Amino acid sequence: MKTAKDSSESNSIEQLEHELEKAPREDKIHIIALLSGKYIDTYPTKTIELCKQGLELLEEYPDNSKLLSLLSDISWAYQNLGNYQDSLTDAFRYYNTALEAEDKEHEAKALNTIGVIYWRLSSFEDAMKYILKSTAIFEELGNRRGLSSSYNNLGILNESLGDVDKAIENYSEALSICRELGEEYDSAGILNNLGVIHIDEGDFEKAEEFCMESLKIRQKLGDLFGVPHVQINLGLIRKESGEYEQGLDILECALNTTIENKDKPAEAEARMYIGLIHESLGNHDKAVEYIEETVRIAGEVKSGELLEVSILHLSGVYERARNYKKALELYKQYKNIHDDIFDEDSLRKMSELEIKHKVKMREKEAELIRIENIDLANANEELLKAIDEVKNLNDLLPTYASTKKNVMTRDTGNG
Questions:
Q1: Which of 71, 339, 386, 389 is deepest in the core (most CB within 10 A)?
Q2: What are phi and psi of 391, to 5 degrees?
Q3: Looking at residue 286, what is its pLDDT?
Q4: Which of 255, 208, 202, 269 is nearest to 227 (CA)?
């Protein structure tokens, strides 16, 4: 016979909201825990509101399992909104609570969550450390779904570090487990990530295959939060294929949805690629407007990777408009951010973890120094000729299709 608790777990959001209104205070915690998980991707602000309500109730009616569930949800909800500092605070609270409860499964999930947040903050050494710990515990427990989540996140991290082969191997392992378990939602995220890595590699036909498969699953599941993530990548494929109008249509649709969802990181990416398409269409002012907004949002959400990429692209826009002073200023800003992320000590420690890291942005430093020493404010024909002779800085500012600095929307796993 089904209990009232069993019935509530299968109820719709509307039914749960109705139950929450009439439930006694002690029973509200169970309903809040169910609702917070249902809202986490589509309306993360609602998840945060519910979790805070639930955490207050738990002070009156302690329940360790519900506490762990709510701490996990609120951390992921903050992360979905790009609020990584609050996300990290709650993730460590989640981890410490799991340790105190001697709950190995939640310990692994918390480690995985912490690793993903560090990845978003471009702290790759810390990200690898925590995700590898998570993977080891999931393997020990035989938790296949958790293991697929960790493999997916290892794929994202290895891709960010430039180890494409290892990343594809990680994604393929994760996808195989998800298909074995019949996990459509998680499969859609991994398929999207495989699409991203093939965009990076310039294989747009293969990339579109993966992204379209992901989109179909997400549309079928009614995943309002995930659909625009895939659309952003499909819009980028159109841009890279020279189909600018189609790309704009897809990206503007995605942008509107990310704004509705208050998904700041995805909104920033959509704006960046819309800006780059406008530049390709000759609309310099619009390009600058959109990409500057990306830079602003990236700084707001403290996404180091997105910040460096958007500044690099903005530098390229100014360079192609022959505003070399502004282009160089932005490029130096990019270099400073990039070098902060991949400093010598960090690379040494990552090497100790046997992580391969490939930094590609070291070419033609001599030309940069030479250009920097020229009085750009008084640029004349001689300067323009000199800059043309170094290929219009294009050898210094990588093209978008070949660079690894296209930060496309990836889907992390929370175990």
A1: 71
A2: 60, 45
A3: 96
A4: 255
